[in-house]
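Try this one yourself first.
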């Protein structure tokens, strides 16, 4: 029996992108024990996942990093670093003599590749498929894979509005460069109500309540109760469709089978967009993107996405 450590400390959306690789690893090695080294929020979200035997919690700061490295020291037969940071590579290398990661040209922090004994040069574009390619050193002759997430569905706060199978808006984003103006959501909600006659709901997270209340006050959209990230899996599984920027809740919706329309600015749909044929990505054509930047002195990408364009995509999607 092998013990394998997967390292993806954060963030939640990126952790979801690593789940198909973990599930595929479990499918190919059902007797192996698979552990995940992650931050507390990822551990809380993934607790109970059927492919995982346990977790190594990586707390913030240098102390948290070294404590995690001490806990895993040479206890694993193999480690897979999907994050590509120096800190994630350090934990992976502490845990095993066989460490898999991306090659120098493809890793996020290039010195991280010095920690890897097996360096994989990505051939695919989307990050989910790039994560699956990290299994090649373990299974060099197997090229077929399944895309499965098996997200744990937790109980969520009661929201009777879900019985109407609404279109949902996720209005937040980890970076301000990923945000769509609240006035755009207002216009979109009102047009959906007027033309399609369909209910619209708003999910929101920490720091987003004021914008959510503003959208609800100026449209027919209904405000969701306060939720944790893990609550959203059950909520999205009951939605007709989700409109969202490129952030964790978008990828969670995809993982539970919800149709999505993604609004992308600084990131590229081919790499970071919602994965699957049922999903739609709207992204402007600009020479400066994708920039993957959290700041911008000439912010044009998200403002170029109009409510009319998003509405048309919704209408076309619902006709199919």
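Now uncover the answer:
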């Amino acid at each position: 029996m092998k013990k394998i450590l997967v390292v993806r400390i954060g963030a939640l959306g990126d952790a979801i992108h690593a789940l198909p690789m973990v599930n595929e690893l479990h499918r190919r090695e059902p007797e192996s024990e698979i552990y995940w080294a992650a931050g507390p929020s990822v551990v809380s979200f993934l607790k109970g996942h059927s492919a995982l035997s346990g977790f190594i919690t990586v707390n913030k700061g240098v102390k948290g990093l070294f404590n995690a490295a001490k806990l895993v020291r040479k206890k694993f037969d193999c480690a897979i670093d999907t994050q590509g940071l120096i800190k994630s590579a350090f934990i992976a290398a502490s845990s095993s003599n066989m460490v898999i990661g991306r090659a120098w040209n493809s890793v996020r922090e290039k010195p991280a590749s010095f920690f890897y004994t097996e360096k994989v040069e990505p051939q695919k574009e989307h990050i989910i498929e790039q994560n699956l390619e990290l299994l090649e050193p373990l299974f060099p002759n197997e090229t077929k894979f399944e895309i499965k997430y098996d997200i744990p569905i937790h109980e969520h706060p009661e929201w009777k509005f879900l019985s109407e199978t609404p279109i949902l808006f996720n209005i937040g984003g980890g970076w301000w460069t990923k945000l769509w103006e609240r006035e755009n959501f207002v216009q979109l909600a009102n047009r959906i109500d007027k033309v399609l006659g369909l209910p619209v709901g708003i999910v929101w997270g920490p720091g987003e309540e004021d914008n959510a209340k503003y959208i609800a006050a100026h449209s027919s959209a209904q405000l969701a109760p306060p939720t944790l990230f893990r609550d959203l899996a059950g909520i999205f599984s009951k939605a007709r469709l989700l409109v969202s920027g490129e952030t964790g809740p978008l990828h969670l919706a995809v993982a539970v089978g919800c149709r999505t329309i993604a609004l992308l600015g600084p990131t590229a749909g081919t790499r970071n967009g919602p994965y699957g044929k049922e999903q739609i990505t709207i992204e402007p054509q600009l020479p400066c993107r994708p920039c993957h930047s959290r700041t911008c002195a000439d912010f044009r990408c998200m403002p170029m996405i109009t409510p009319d364009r998003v509405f048309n995509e919704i209408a076309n999607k619902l006709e199919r």
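Discussion: Residues 68 and 87 are 11 Å apart (CA to CA). The chain is about 35% helix and 15% strand.
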